[in-house]
Amino acid sequence: MKKKYDISDYHLKLIISLLLIFAIIIAYGQVRNFDFVDFDDGLYITKNVHVQKGFTVEGLAWAFTSFHAANWHPMTWFSHMLDYELYGLNPMGHHWTNIQLHMANTLLLFLILQMMTGAIWRSAFVAGLFALHPLHVESVAWVAERKDVLSTFFWLLTMWAYFFYVKKPVLIRYFMVLLFFVLGLMTKPMLVTLPFVLLLLDFWPLRRFRFENNRLSQSSGKTCFDFKGASRLIVEKIPFFILVVIACSLTFFAQKGGGALVPLESLSLKTRIANALISYVSYVFKAIWPSNLSVYYPYPADAIPVWQICGAALLIVSVFCGAICLLRQYRYVAVGLFWYFGTLVPVIGLVQVSDQAMADRYTYIPLTGLFIIVAWGVSDLLVKWHYRKIFLGVSAVIILSALTVCTFFQASHWRNTVTLFKNAVKVTENNYRALNNLGTALIDKGKPDEALLYFAEALRIDPQKTDARNNLANMLFLQGKPDEAVFHYNEILKFNPQKTDVRNNLAKVLSAQGKLDEAVLHYKEAIKINPEYVDAHYNLADVLSFQGKLDEAVLHYKEAIKINPEYVKAHYHLGKILINQGKMKQAMFHFAETIRISPDYAEGYNQIGLILAEQGKYNAAEGFFSKAVQIRPNYTEALKKIALLKKILSSSEK
To answer: How many domains does the chain have?
Structure first.
């Protein structure tokens, strides 16, 4: 007689976990070799001098006190700082961190659902959908969206701690739940909806909300809702709601101060509500059939048709009515539905941040509610079918395999900025931002003529937008048409006088035209608006130096270095002024910084050689001149100095 071997739950969960990790590697492994993209990656990493300082006291203080990027999320900054400490500006490491966090989130979701429900396979299917759905590519493949995967990590840890608190409600476990929740809020304010999700979990699957018999209804066999018990559960969440209020206040001030909030006069409440209704339904359709996914979805150019708004509203109301009818027998339907609709509230556009109509990344947590409905609902619908397990197993494999392929191809669009926005232009219409960003990326690739076409198309779609006009003006200047460039810069400033980058660009053109006093005024105005605008400080210092106002130039070079200690050109030009002022020791320090930051900066070696030669240290000076020539073989000045030093040294030997 053959002996029967059963796989234990532990080994089954281990196998499922390994399969989920393997599937994520197949879908996302290519992302490790992708570049940073010019869409907030600069704001968060590649051009963020605070992040690039790494874990310093100054950097940590900045993370807690800054509203940079129109958000208050110190844990996100810590994460990027740690990555910079480990990987520098090698994008591979930053991408790999995102993938690892996505893996951790997938496994946590699987284990938490399994612990709460006892259903291994349904929990595994939900985790599989979460891991492999193409709508989640944006959250994983975009380095600047680290806050999404990291905040979800803390979200799920909060749920995990909450499960153990419910099993044994002691104070230390309650504080663990609060701790993970606070860390999540410090990563992304999306977690403001988590206390409501905890109440949903109390209803199902934890079943802490109860329906009980009462004396008045015992004779009829009816039950009533236990409001007293429900009140206790709500009171239990009061500290969480207090933290939510604090987080919402901080986020409001951060986004308002950063200019990210769109005022009602620019986008009416009626339009926002209409877009929210359409977005709720659109996300569902994209979840079912994930096609034409884009990094940016513009608001429709024309008003949304009334029939679409009414249809979306009717569909949403019908779905909620159905969920209420199934409330007693199938609690997970209401929980999944409220999870989806509730967690999307902060990003559905009623409080509009930026100018997108919707975004794939917003679904990273909300879709879990719909996944739960599908996993448990389909299983319950087929409960009496004899071949249910075979059908569900085969269907799950087919669906997850198809999603893996879709995610693989969707992730491939994130290879670089050009591929990302080319896809956005292809799958959307009248996408101003995608056209503008694609043009900028093509300039970086050395394709200015092709870029000009995209800038012109962006301006055709919306002549009032500033970014494309600014980029067009930059191109005109590079093509030797400064007067046309100045016209476009002034057109922007006429309606948007606070645009510091435009003032900086205009000042550069005016400076090239010899209109130095006008250039200085615009640089100073840009600095007044944004005192940490490092390029404006540097450019202003250059002009002041040319005008002979050396003391004032030194102040702005030093300010640029204070903001960005790695600003190599500021160190070099400051060093040159200090030589003219006879401050050789200070000049030597800045030239040393120049070659430390940029070891191939030939001019830096040449200047150090000049100082050493002036001090009579001829052998040392010759070494630095030789290094300059090694970097740049045709460096005439350094070659002449070497020849001169050889004569001096040979004559001294005689």
So the answer is: 2
Supply the DSSP symbol for 135: G
Average pLDDT of span 237-244:
97
Q: Which of 363, 386, 415 is the last residue of a domain?
A: 415
Residue 650's domain comprises 568-654
Instruction: Please tell me the predicted confidence (pLDDT) of residue 214.
Output: 55
Cβ–Cβ under 8 Å, residues 608 and 587:
no
Return left, alpha or beta for 221; rule: phi > 0 is left, psi -120 to 50 is alpha, else beta. Answer: left
Cβ-proximal residues to 238 (8 Å cutoff; 6+ apart), any chain: none
Report which of 152, 146, 144, 150 is spatially closest to residue 420, judged by C-alpha positions. Answer: 144
Two tokens, residue 61: 């203080």
Pairing of strands 211-212, 224-225: antiparallel
Handedness of CA 372, 377, 380, 385 (dihedral sign): negative
Under the phi-then-psi rule, with left for phi > 0, alpha for psi from -120 to 50, and beta for the rest, what region is 582?
A: left
Alpha carbon of residue 131 to chain centroid: 19
Q: Which two tokens stand for residue 441?
A: 């990326």
Domain boundary among 415, 445, 474: 415
Residue 110 has pLDDT above 90, yes or no: yes
Answer whether residue 540 is part of any domain. Answer: no
pTM of the model: 0.85
Let me know if residue 426 belongs to a domain: no
Residue 434: inside a domain:
no
| Local confidence band at 3 (pLDDT 50, 70, 90 cut-offs) | very low
Considering only residues 264 and 140, tell me which one the structure prediction assigns the higher pLDDT: 140
- Residue 238, classified by CB atoms within 10 Å of its CB into exposed (0-12), middle (13-18) or buried (19+), is exposed
Average pLDDT on 123-148 reads 98
Task: Give the pLDDT confidence of 55-70 residue by residue, as tens digits.
Answer: 888 889 999 998 988 8
